[in-house]
Amino acid sequence: MSAEPAVTTEVQATPPPEKPLFRNKDFQALWISQFLAAVAKESAEIAYPLLILATTGSATYAGAVGSVALIVAGVASLPGGSLTDRFDRRKIMLLTDGIRMVLLALFSFLVLTGTTNMAIIFAIVIVSSACLGVSNPAGLAAIKQLVPPSQLTQAQGQNQIRFFGATVAGPPIGGALYGIARALPFLAAAIAFLASAVILLFIKKPMQAPPSPTDTGKRGAWEGFKFIAGQPIIRILILWVCVSNMAFNHSGMFLALIATAEGRNASEAVIGTTLAIAGAGGLTGAIIGPVVLKYVKPSLIMAYAIWIGPVAAVLLAIIPAVLPLGIIVACIFLRAGVVNALFFGYIGALVPDSKQGRVIGAIMFISMIAQPIGIFAVGAIFDLAGPTWVFITMAVVGTAAALPTLTKQIRTLPAPEELAKQD
Predict the structure, then answer these.
(1) Are residues 120 and 80 in the same domain?
(2) Among 233, 276, 262, which Cα is nearest to 410's?
C-alpha cells in the first residue's frame, strides 16, 4: 500500500476586524477627559468677566481678559507643540490639568474670602491659557496613536462634538453657578480638571510612537512651520483658515450681529434668539460632521466651506431683518465642525508622529493669532462706517482667502484615509 503524499496548504492569517470607534476605550477616555477640561475652561471664562464687572464695573477689563487668554494660548501652543514631540504626552496633559486644578481651587478660595484683585485675575488667566496652549497639541497629537488610520477623520469628527458641545454647555453652567455663588464656577472647574486628569490614567495605549532617530523633537517650533510650508494640502488649507478666521471668527461675528441688531432697534429677546440660532450652527455642524465626512467628497465639503462665507456676508449686508441674520451666520458656522475634522484628518494622515506636536502647535498659533485682528477690525469698521461696510469687508476678505484654494489639488482632494494608506 503506497502512502499518499501529504498536501500542505498555506493558511494566511487575516487581520482582526477593526473595532468601531465607540468601542475604543482609550480614545473615548481621552475624549471624555478633554471634554471635561473644555467645559471647565468655558465655564471659568464666562465667570471671569462677570466677576470683573461686579467688582470693578470696567467693561474694558472684562473684554481684555478674553483677548489676553486667546493671545497667550496661541503663543503657548508653539512651545507646547515642541514639548509634545519631546516628552510623554500623557504627562503633559496631567501636568497642565493639575496646574489649572490648583490655580482655580486657590482662586475660588480668594473669591470666597474677597481677597482677589485684577492682578490676580489676569495672572490666573495667563497661566491657565498657557496650560491650554501646551496641552492642546498633546491631546490632538495623541489621537494618531489611539485610533487606526482608517478612523482618523471619524475620530476628529467626534472631537469637534467635544469642542462645540463644551462651547455650548460651558457658559450657561458657569453663569448658573456664578448666580449661586461667585466662587462656585471656579471651584467646579477645578473639580472638572481633577476628573480630567484621573481619567487620563485609565488610558492603556501609548500616546506617541517610539522616538525617531532622525528627529527627536529638539529642533524647536520652527520644524512645524517648515513642514507646513513643504506640504501643499496643509499649506493651502491653513492659509485659507488663517485669513478666513479674521473675517468669520465666532467672537467677531457675534459682535457684528449684536451691534447690527442694536442699531436696528431690535429687542433683547430678538437679539438673544438671533445669537442662539447663529451659535447652534457650530454644534449642528459638529453633530452631522461624521455623516457628511463619510458620504460627501472632501472637495465638495471644501467648496461649501470656502464660498459660504463671502456669499453669506453679502446677504448679511443687504437683508434688513434681524432674525434671518442669525440663520445666515449659522450657515457659516455650520462648516466649522466638518472642516476642522477634515483638516485634522489630513494632519493625522500626512504628518509623522515625531512632528505632530510642532505642526499642530504651529497651526494653532496661526489660526488663533489671526482672530483678535478680525475682532478689532469689526469694532473699528462698525464705528467708522456702520454694519453694511463690516459685512462688505468680510465678503472681500473671505473672497481673498478663497483665491489660494483655486487649484486642482484642492478641487480633487483625496480623503485623509487614502493618503494614510499611501504613507
Answers:
(1) yes
(2) 233
Domain hosting residue 86, numbered range = 25-199
Indicate whether 118 and 233 sit together in one domain.
Answer: no
Indicate whether 32 belongs to any domain: yes
Residue 119: Cβ-neighbour burial (10 angstroms; 0-12, 13-18, 19+): exposed
Which pLDDT tens digit goes with each residue over 78-105?
Answer: 999 999 998 899 999 999 999 999 999 9
Instruction: Provide the residue type at 112 as one letter.
Output: L
pLDDT tens digits for range 380-397? 888 888 888 989 999 999
Alpha helix positions (H), 201-231 = 222-230
Query: pLDDT at position 399, please?
Result: 93
Answer whether residue 182 is part of any domain. Answer: yes
- Domain CATH number, residue 320: 1.20.1250.20
Distance CA 118, CA 104 (A): 15
Phi and psi dihedrals of 181, rounded to 5? -160, 140
The half-sphere exposure of 150 on its side-chain side, counting CA atoms within 13 A, is 5
